Amino acid sequence: MNNMISKNKSFALFFVAIGVLAIFSCKKLLPSDSDAFNKDAGFKQTTYRPILGRTTLMGDNFNIESSSLPLTFKIVAMRNGDGQTSPELLKPFPVLVWKKAYDGSEKSIQEIENKRTTEQHTLFEVGEHSGEFIMWAEAKSNIVKALPDSGYVFDVEVANNGGRKYFNNLVLQPQRELPYEPNRINPLTGANTGGTITPSTMAGIFGEKSGQPLSSNDVTILFNKIGEGNSLSFKFLDTLLKPIDPAKFKLTNWTKLVHGFNLKMTPTSVKYDVAYPIPLVQIPTPYTNAAGSRARVAFSYDRIGFGGFRVEANLGLDFAIFEKGDWEIVIWFNKDNPRFTND
């Protein structure tokens, strides 16, 4: 009887062992979560048109669906529209990258530059695990093809432990440089369209002759590049193109107007040493709009108007400059000069 019980126990243990082995074998045959690659994953768009001369990040452009992370992205077969290899987008160039975060509190150009360094990168890249495309600011139309040229075609390999997929015939069509914003430049030809740039905001400024409120259409904004340095100047002109002393805008906080240094004010202009681009990065700082996409300047003064009431006058401009140089922004009162004296 005892032998029978022992034999039954042995058989039971044998079948339990077989069952356990079967379970583990089945688990080995099933894909793990880390091996999932969803065939429906893909790019949200297939054509990319970054503006040359500025670092552009094209993010949030890939649907992973239920694919497991990390995914690995790689650009393959970068070629011209005619199918020929494009060496200008395959070889590395020196590009300026941030190694420490910029926050707008830096006290000198040197402090800003200490947060940047030069690295070797291809001018158009994809984030290895993000899938975000980046076109570096060093990509210019004298190096890469720009619209109206058909541009480039490329493929992207996307892979993880569960598989890989090739996304073919994505299109890169860079637009020509637009060195500043706002602008009236045709992005296909680079020619000026003939339109005018006006202030972003304007209030409380009355005409010297008319005594009537001036509108933003009565002021023309001009962007002039006059050198290859690192400066930004502001000039005010009257209707006859004669300088207006910037000191007349007496309520302006000149030391906090832009993130610039070594302020120099003369009867004809205000000049700062600056680092480019402006803004340096797209984050909100005391020198930008709420989105951080444009620098924001405000010029103001006050006077006594009719009835003895104080009138505060304001002129504001949101702008960006992407090309390094000695730039001046000219504010021209084209219809009537601003009244600075009391009524």
Automatic annotation (TrEMBL):
It comes from the Bacteria. This is DUF5007 domain-containing protein.
